Amino acid sequence: MRNLARIVRIISGVGIFRAEIDNRMSCGCQLPVKLIFEFISGVVCAKGDSHKKLYFSELLADDTVLNCVIAIPLLLNLFAADPPVVRPDGSRVSSDQITQRMEQAVAQAKIAGIGVSILQNGHVRYLKTFGYADAATKRPLTPETVMYGASFTKAMFGYTVTRLAEEGKIDLARPIATYLKKPLPEYPKYADLDTELRCKQITPRILLSHTAGFANFAFLEPDRKMRLHFDPGTRYAYSGEGINLLHSF
Q1: Four-residue CA torsion sign, 210, 211, 212, 213
Q2: Directed axis angle between helix 62-80 and helix 2-26, to 10°?
Q3: What is the Cα–Cα distance from 102 to 209, expressed in whole angstroms?
Q4: What is the pLDDT of residues 181-219, one digit of tens each?
Q5: What single string gives the DSSP state of each residue in the chain?
Q6: Whether this model's pTM surpasses 0.70
Q7: Cα(21)–Cα(96) distance, integer angstroms
């Protein structure tokens, strides 16, 4: 009965311990050994004082050895399993299932290298890389590999612009032409727009919302020239050119 009571106290403390370091673990951090011992010291027999702290040497005392032996496997089991990823429909999928499916997809599509990260509620729930950073040299892709961010950076850029707007440093409704040092067509990249008067209607808000009328990129046009396909602000058409224009000032 005495040992059973100890086990009950250990299990009851697991929830508190889990809540204390859940954020650290969900972000992929290692569980510090010191924290394990702090947990054990707070849960195992404290002889009536729930706030008593035991040092490492005390943990090796005969009266607490059994508690340590019981607690450590419980902790390892608690943190061994990764938290499941919750799909939009509420169903759950484990890290192992995601890994298995990704390995199949990489093999079938003959992908040289790919990194997958799943974030939920501000925490990283899954992070794994597959394949190579350099297929020619067989250099493996790792979570530390620096990769080209491409359009993932648009979200950060958009956030930065809106913060500048909140601080009054940029007016989202003000035509970009008024921010530039010279007319837009006088910049070499936008020379094709020399007769396009609708450019004067374009604002930062229009560019951020991908409603300026540009193609995704001018080099995708049949003649590789920059043009507007509709009146700014009237339709949506995803455009890297629009975001790049906003970068320019």
Answers
A1: positive
A2: 40
A3: 32
A4: 999 999 999 999 999 999 999 999 999 999 999 999 999
A5: -HHHHHHHHHHHHHHHHHHHHHHHHHTT----HHHHHHHHHHHS--TT-TT----HHHHTSHHHHHHHHHHHHHHHHHHHSPPPEEPTTS-EE-HHHHHHHHHHHHHHHT-SEEEEEEEETTEEEEEEEEEEEETTTTEEP-TT-----GGGHHHHHHHHHHHHHHTTS--TTS-GGGTSSS-GGGSGGGGGGTT-GGGGG--HHHHHTT-S---S-GGGSTT-----SS-TTSS----HHHHHHHHT-
A6: no
A7: 23
| Structural tokens at position 207 | 């560019």
Give me the residue spans of the domains in the chain: 2-80, 85-147, 154-247
Spatial distance between the Cα atoms of 80 and 75, rounded to a whole number of angstroms: 8
Between CA 180 and CA 191 the distance in angstroms is 15
Cα–Cα distance measured from residue 69 to residue 84, given in angstroms and rounded to the nearest whole number? 28
User: Can you give the length of the chain in residues?
Assistant: 249
**Is the CB of residue 49 less than 8 Å from the CB of residue 147?**
no
